[in-house]
Write a structure and sequence with these properties.
The chain is an alpha/beta fold. It is built from 9 helices and 5 strands; from the N terminus they run E-H-E-H-H-H-E-H-E-H-H-H-E-H. Helix 1 packs across helix 9, helix 2 packs across helix 4 and helix 3 packs across helix 4 (60-77). The longest helix is centred in the last third of the chain and has 19 residues, at 162-180. It is globular, with a radius of gyration of 17 Å. The chain starts with 10 loop residues before the first strand and ends in a 7-residue tail after the last helix. The model has no long low-confidence stretch (mean pLDDT 97).
């Protein structure tokens, strides 16, 4: 696929697990009348089981390979999608490179203090949190932050509800689109 116009590019949400990528991605897609894809859901559908079971039955290595193949393929062959990737996706350079070169990447940032309030709602479904105490989680949280450093836009989500974050993202996009292409329908 040739290089896309800014308005046609896929929008990708990145950030640590539990920051709200899946929930907010759906809302952004609704507001833009676009299809939404959550990479974990795509992989879960293919395997017919939840991520945690994929890790248990096939191992993290296989999950990461599938994650890479799925995201890189979408980046190169799809347009106009809103895509939420898993919190570990940007550990892989090929994923990072494909997303940053082909898509518009939003980093959803959340402080450690605010993130801790999410633990009870995500703990059972996140394989990488299994068996970890608070200190281990803090270590993982800190260790992961550098992988999100490269992005196009950052949204600090502390004190913002889901609708407010989605509105913020859509507002940022519309400003950027209008800057490069103020009258798209006249072309
Ligand atoms: N801005 C927000 N404020 C409060 N709760 C949120 C917010 N964004 C997401 N959540 C909640 O946090 C939990 C994790 O959200 P999820 O979308 O699964 O995160 P991710 O996909 O980044 O792992 C869900 O219970 C969701 O309802
Ligand atoms: O951070 C990670 O390594 C992971 C995050 C998860 O996605 P969310 O970020 O949507 O929770 C999911 O891809 C898998 O459990 C691994
Ligand atoms: Mg998710």
């Amino acid at each position: 696929m040739k290089d896309l116009a800014l308005r046609e590019k896929n929008i990708v949400l990145i950030g640590f697990m539990g920051v709200g990528k899946t929930t907010i991605g759906k809302e952004v897609a609704k507001r833009l009348y676009r299809d939404f894809l959550d990479i974990d859901e795509v992989i879960e559908k293919e395997y017919g089981m939840p991520t945690r079971q994929i890790f248990e039955n096939f191992g993290e290595k296989e999950f990461r390979q599938k994650e890479k193949d799925t995201i890189v393929d979408l980046c190169h062959n799809q347009r106009l999608k809103v895509i939420s990737v898993g919190g570990g996706a940007f550990l892989q350079e090929e994923i990072k490179e494909a997303c940053l070169s082909k898509c518009i990447v939003f980093f959803l940032d959340l402080s450690w203090d605010a993130w801790q309030d999410r633990i009870s709602s995500i703990i059972d479904s996140r394989p990488v949190l299994q068996g970890k105490n608070r200190e281990d989680m803090r270590h993982l949280f800190d260790q992961r932050q550098p992988i999100y450093k490269d992005h196009h836009y950052k949204v600090t989500t502390d004190n913002l509800n889901v609708n407010e974050v989605a509105d913020f993202i859509v507002d940022r996009l519309k400003t950027a689109w209008n800057k490069v292409d103020p009258n798209p329908e006249q072309q």
